[in-house]
Amino acid sequence: MGTAPLLNPFSETFDRDWRAIRALAQAALGLAVCGPAQALSLRLRPDAAPRIPRAFHRLFCRAIGMHIDVIGTPVERPSTLYVSNHISWVDIPVLGSHILGSFVAKAEVGQWGMVTRLSDLQRTIYVERERRTRSREQSNIIAERMAAGHSIILFPEGTSTSGRTVKPFKSSLFAIAEADGLGVTVQPVTLAYTHINGLPMLRSMRHKVAWIGDMELAPHVWELLGLGHIRAVIQFHEPVLRSDFPDRKALARHCEQVVSAGLIRANRGEL
Fold first, then answer.
1. Is residue 168 included in any domain, yes or no?
2. Which domain holds residue 191?
3. Is 3 part of a structural domain of the chain?
4. Considering the entire predicted model, what is its pTM?
């Protein structure tokens, strides 16, 4: 009978830490180059599409071993509202690598170190969702951006999930689609993480990518950077208009159903 090879826990830990260090070094180098270039671009052409951030996000995804399959095509029209489910902090570089747009994120993201730098590259709009007194002011900021032709990436669940199901979309976050004269196109987007190192994403593995609940950010970032190869799937669904629906609740419900159906197909391996 053959003897099963002995696993070396030290070697496995070293490999994970080395992958994480290498990914951080490559990301820091890319940020050192793209950050000043983006700052100069915003000074010279503040209304230009964020192509430098998209290039950086692609570099970052390669550095951390993120392989992305894309189904469908982003419409890339001026003033497009992309609405996606939300799983992890890494959604920012994954979606940012394929969408020319700015994110809407909760204010806490503006205090998350490198994640903040990634968000700032994309000209993220930070909102304080708990302070309703500022909701009109924050909506006006988003409206001004879209009126200038910028596209926005929105996570209408309002929080991140394990990636198994989609939480109800908050219809209040679709108010921007009702702004007068903008002609906003809304494109539902499904994001799924399906494999780690070639193995299907089991329920017991989802916490390695999903960042939910009271997880501490730094340890989660370190673990994810050291995982190896992660496969993500982005599905761009058929775009719609606000005028296609009787009200924004119906619009939100449609987008939620489309995104949820896409997530089920991705998790079942049916794409």
1. yes
2. 10-268
3. no
4. 0.86
User: Rounded to an integer, what distance in angstroms lies between the CA atom of residue 149 and that of residue 197?
Assistant: 40
Q: Are 145 and 130 in contact (CB under 8 A)?
A: no
pLDDT of residue 129: 62
Closest to 94 measured CA to CA, from 18, 189, 185: 189
pLDDT at position 132: 57
Burial of 195 (0-12, 13-18, 19+ CB in 10 A): middle
Asked if 110 contacts 99 with a C-beta cutoff of 8 angstroms, the reply is no
Q: Domain tally for the chain? A: 1
Residue 130 sits in a domain of what CATH number?
A: 3.40.1130
Whether residue 2 lies inside any domain: the answer is no
The answer as to whether 212 is a domain residue is yes
Nearest to 142 by CA among 74, 53, 81: 81
Longest Cα separation, the chain? 76
- Which residues of the chain carry a pLDDT beneath 70? 1-10, 42, 46-49, 107-119, 122, 129-138, 179-182
